[in-house]
Amino acid sequence: MRTNLARGISAAALAAALTIGSPASAQSTSTLQGHVEGAAPGATVTVTDTTTGRSVTATVNAEGNYVIVGLRPSTYQVTLSGGEAETVVLPVGQTVTYDLGTPADSAGAGGEIVVTGTRDRTETRTATVSTNVSQAQIENLPQNERNFLNFAALAPGVAVSPTAGNRRVQAGAVSSDNTNVFIDGLSLKNPVNHGGVAGQNFSKGNPFPQSAVQEFKVDTQNFKAEYEQAGSAIITAVTKTGGTEFHGGAFGEWQPKAFIGQPYFERNREKPAYNRWQYGADLGGPIIKDVLHFFGAFEGTSQKLPSTAVNLDPNNEGRVPQALKDEYNGTYAQSFEQRLYFGKLSLFATDRDTINASVFVRKEDNLADFGGNAVPEHGRRLVSDINVYQADWTHRGDSWLNELTVAYNTVSNGTPRNTDDPEVILTNNVGVNGGEAALLGGNSFIQNDNQKTWTFKNNVTFFGGDHTIKAGAKLTLNTYERLEDSRNNGSYYYFGGTFTDAATQIPDAARISTVPVAPAVAKNTQIGLFVQDDWTPDEHWTINAGLRWDFETNAKNENFVTPDRIANALRNYQGWQAAGIDPEDYISTGDNRKPFWGAIQPRLGISYDVNGDRDLIFFAGAGRYYDRPLFITAGIETITSYYRSVTTLAFCQGSGGAPVPGCINWNDSYRDPDALRAIATAQGTGGDVWLLNNDTKLPFSDQFSLGVRKRFGEVQTSLTFAHIRSHNIFQFVRGNRFENGWYTRIVNRDGAGNVTGCSDGGILWVQDNIPGSLTNANGSPVPTSICAAQNGQLPGFSGKLNIGQNDGKAVYNAIYLTVDKPYSQASGWGFTLSGTFQRARTNVGTELGADEFFAGPDVTQFGWQSVQGVDQYRIVATGMVNLPLDVLFSATGTFASGPAFGYAGCPPAAITPPSPTPDGVGCIANLGGVRFPSNEFAYANVDLRLTKKFVLPWGHELSVKAEVFNVFDSINRSYSGWGSGNNPGEWEENSTVGNARSFQVGASYRF
Fold this sequence. Notes:
Elements: E1 3-5, H1 11-14, E2 19-20, E3 30-37, E4 44-49, E5 55-59, E6 65-71, E7 74-80, E8 86-90, E9 95-97, E10 99-101, E11 112-115, E12 129-133, H2 135-140, E13 158-160, E14 169-171, E15 180-183, E16 186-187, E17 213-221, E18 234-239, E19 247-256, E20 275-288, E21 292-310, H3 322-328, E22 330-347, E23 353-368, E24 380-396, E25 400-414, E26 423-427, E27 436-441, E28 445-462, E29 467-486, E30 491-495, E31 509-513, E32 520-535, E33 541-552, H4 564-571, H5 574-579, E34 599-609, E35 616-626, H6 631-643, E36 646-650, H7 673-683, E37 689-691, E38 700-712, E39 715-734, E40 745-749, E41 755-760, E42 801-821, E43 829-842, E44 852-853, E45 865-866, E46 873-883, E47 887-896, E48 901-905, E49 924-931, E50 939-951, E51 957-965, E52 998-1006
Parallel strand pairs: 3-9, 3-10, 15-18, 26-30, 37-42, 39-44
Antiparallel strand pairs: 1-11, 2-9, 3-6, 4-5, 4-7, 7-8, 10-11, 12-17, 13-14, 15-16, 17-18, 19-20, 19-52, 20-21, 21-22, 22-23, 23-24, 24-25, 25-28, 26-27, 28-29, 29-32, 30-31, 31-36, 32-33, 33-34, 34-35, 35-38, 38-39, 39-42, 40-41, 42-43, 43-45, 43-46, 46-47, 47-50, 48-49, 50-51, 51-52
């Protein structure tokens, strides 16, 4: 049944017209459709963007329906054949139904508006599980950082890491690597390293200026065929556009030391130095009114981080000279600086053509990775430099729309050394494995990721009848680089108890890379094709059917050639022969790794509107979603094969103690890393070897959802069952084997210390360096007839042998509950509720987002268990309400079970380790999800904000705000396998995540 509203209806009520999911919208545009009651032939509907002044006109068809696709998310004036204009709001990526006309039973001058329901910020006739985050929520909900991705937590099934810095968005039963973020239709996915979003893998910064984001949406289940490279969640954001009038503003937010709370378990210490300013400005308007408009935004963060303390030899054990302790022990201030720039030009070339051109620049730099036993010179800088250039051309025909995008982006993230001096390591005991008492000089390891991408994308949409058909093609030309510099500067080891001066004293040992450092480089061409049909045969049924195909020329290091030295060693490796491992599975010729052509992804969604009034809707959907392996896996294979080979040298004259077997004589020229490298190279021994399986498969997920949506007045609710099965989860696992094929060995000795036999120690052990041959107490070799498990090292190499395995799987079942009453200035209030009740299981026994399964030779060795880091349940609620005196009160509350965690230790206290312990090991690390915190809500956080607005005499607005984070000062513990998982009985650790109770104040000026 339709509700007839007079022309005098308020704009706020009209803005609440129900969203449905019929015609296909572009990733960052929206659709307006509806029925015109009693329309005369040739009647037209005109919509005008109230920001840009841009108008689009559609002709009503013979059935009295109209549809306009490809509209910029905005507030529009809707006019029927020159009649009185009405207001409707289009959120990003959604379809709004807006009926017009004069019903036969209700005559009226100029026609009445028929609103068939209360518009929600999510589509209702669709199988996609979607959550829209409005500009009002972005601007008014409390937030400690200006990172718009924090609001992704308002969507069911989505979690955002609670600790400031390195924010990651996780969904389903897989890591944040499987998400994808689109801004103005362009993917910002990180194809090289972890984190999901380019630049977020080890950054404290924000991915994009929040003041440039108009709004965004989060799709957590069954998204359409136009979306690519995501196995869990899609985030789609749209940027602001300059309008017909000049508008802009500036803001500042301040958080001094006095405003931050000391973490609960550090309250016996003095609060460290801290200060943070977040500031920025934006401006938009016409250059040539109605022809060329501009928008620009800048945001900066200047942060003095809590001081880092250096505390050498804290127990005064004599492992560090007093002179060094006097020089370095103390606190050192750290700082973080970030600058974000965004600019956009909009050219309305003709009535049918719009061209947008934009540029985004991100720069940040801070010193990190020192403290404790590492002095500041040993630190590394965390540097990000991102540049995105994008141009979009939209051409509108009478019943079709074409959208062309061309973009170029560069991303660089690195950790350069604070100094290039050699590393000096003081050890607790003699030798390279003697434990680190102090780290001096330059850091031994740096990394840098680079990405350069050209994107060409074209989508065309045909509309006008019951079917809206959209098809598109995308071509990206990528260059990936991964650089790892491990000990190129040389590491010199001295026993701390006798150390005096690195300039004159002879070290006990040294490690250095023997090959030139260079990045692993790969070129990769990606092709994506899709077609989708949104079919609405009547007012009850909506069917969304789509098909997607993706292809990459070099997703799995297809062009890599295994060096002959490694290939020959593998073919002659007795441990693999005995274990039944085929070396040809890991030896690449540059021609035996074939690109995958079968990434075909059907997607289907069906919804049924029971009464045809968008009040009660049942929906279901299913689809396949391919993602891609990260280039870091291919980069590690290339780097360890060609550009990293670390050799360890022991020196007979070292001052730490007696000479060790195999030592060499010291020469003072070895203080020069290049001379040290020359003698190390002469030893002819390689280091670590990491290899992909030639049959490495692309990760993908199969998704299914079933649900119902029900409207109660202005409140929209939904209840959804979500099911996801994820396949081909990748990890590097241990590949070393003894000559008889065992992974570990238990050695039996008699009372005199002679070997009498050995047995298989099993696979549930951490073994970084597999033992070699065996000797008796008198040094005589042990024959293989006594113990066949010997010589586990790959011949000619001295490090780990890691091999790729993607046998990992995950299964996710969840119930999503959402309740949403959109906030508007007219209604004066709004709230959202998102409840997730989930069971995430996997056969991968390690942490989300890891590269290396160091706990053994098989990712499935611990069996099926919960997914580490994923809650059992999570409830997120928000609210906004207008108070007297132009004060807005807003709040966000998050309550969760706390994440699943595993155990680790040497030996782990969480379990009784098998006895006896194998030779050379002692650690068991099941870092999967073995247990959950015991508290019902192990994580609870409530943030509040008050904003007071002053309207100045000249019409501008000044707002001041005060925020409090974690208002109840909840103790939100962290849960890790090395901490909580190794503390039986309590299963807790004395560290926290998120904020202690903290405050922030700010002000903004708008005109």
